[in-house]
């Protein structure tokens, strides 16, 4: 089951330019993109008994986590001041100095590449558990210039963050400040015929860019994942 991630620059621009008119047509749905290939160690010799499905899944996750540790060490050495400042147990840090943002994501998620997204990480077993970051240029100076949290959230959900074929519901939307910058955060549900995704998003305007970070999980795993996903949302920061 593939994760729905369709906040492309073009659709974001259309949604933002018409956020005051939520009844305009929805943005096109962006394809899911391709995963980066993940290599695993060779299985045991054919003469050995095959492991159970559950054991195999555990082995796959452990193999990926081992690789993720090596990647994290090579990109963010443990003596890095940025890592020490942003890190949290059970999470890895993304620090993008070029585009001016940082956030945390759960340890063990895999980076994948999806057209129109700046960063995407997702779970190797549960594909609906993911986080994505998107940016578009804007002449606006503050997120409040676009409308209230509820108005902007409704426009993004209906036109950008979920396909038009899905039934969506805004659960709540709010505003907060970090280092003098205004952020909107909101929770929503997107229901497809064969699954329901429970998601969180946070948005901000800075550096001439409109930033959107979205994370979520299958509704059946929301109770288990919601605290982690709130940590992801709360960790997102943009620099001046």
Plain-language structure description:
The chain is α+β, with helices and mostly antiparallel strands. It is 27% helix and 30% strand. It is built from 5 helices and 10 strands, in the order αααβββββαββββαβ. The strands form 2 sheets. A 7-stranded antiparallel sheet has the order 3-4-5-9-8-7-6, sandwiched between helices. Strands 1-2-10 form a 3-stranded antiparallel sheet. Helix 1 runs antiparallel to helix 4. The termini are far apart. Mean pLDDT is 77; it is low at 1-5, 20-58 and 62-85.
Tell me the span between the first and last alpha carbons: 38 Å
> What's the order of the H and E elements?
HHHEEEEEHEEEEHE
Inertia-based shape? globular
**How big a fraction of the residues is strand?**
25-35%
- Count the helices. How many? 5
Helix content class: 25-40%
Q: For the residues shown, what is the average pLDDT?
A: 77
Q: Round the Cα radius of gyration to an integer and report it.
A: 19 Å
Structural class: alpha+beta
| DSSP, total strands | 10
Adjacency order of strands in the biggest sheet: 3-4-5-9-8-7-6
Q: What's the main sheet like?
A: 7 strands, antiparallel
Uncertain ranges: 1-5, 20-58, 62-85
């Amino acid at each position: 089951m593939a994760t729905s991630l369709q906040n492309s620059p073009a659709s974001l621009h259309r949604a933002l330019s018409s956020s005051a008119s939520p009844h305009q047509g929805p943005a096109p749905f962006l394809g899911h993109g391709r995963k980066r290939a993940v290599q695993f160690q060779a299985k045991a010799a054919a003469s050995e008994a095959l492991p159970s499905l559950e054991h195999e899944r555990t082995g796959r996750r452990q193999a990926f986590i081992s690789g993720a540790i090596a990647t994290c060490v090579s990109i963010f050495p443990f003596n890095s001041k940025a890592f020490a400042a942003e890190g949290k147990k059970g999470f890895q840090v993304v620090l993008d100095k070029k585009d001016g943002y940082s956030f945390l994501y759960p340890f063990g998620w895999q980076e994948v590449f999806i057209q129109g997204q700046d960063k995407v990480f997702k779970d190797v077993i549960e594909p609906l558990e993911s986080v994505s970051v998107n940016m578009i240029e804007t002449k606006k100076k503050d997120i409040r210039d676009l409308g209230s949290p509820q108005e902007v959230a409704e426009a993004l959900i209906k036109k950008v963050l979920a396909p038009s074929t899905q039934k969506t519901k805004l659960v709540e939307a709010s505003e907060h400040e970090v280092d003098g910058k205004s952020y909107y955060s909101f929770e929503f549900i997107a229901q497809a015929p064969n699954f329901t995704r429970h998601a969180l998003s946070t948005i901000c305007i800075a550096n001439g860019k409109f930033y959107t970070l979205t994370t979520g999980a299958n509704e059946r795993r929301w109770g288990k994942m919601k605290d982690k996903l709130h940590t992801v949302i709360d960790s997102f920061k943009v620099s001046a």
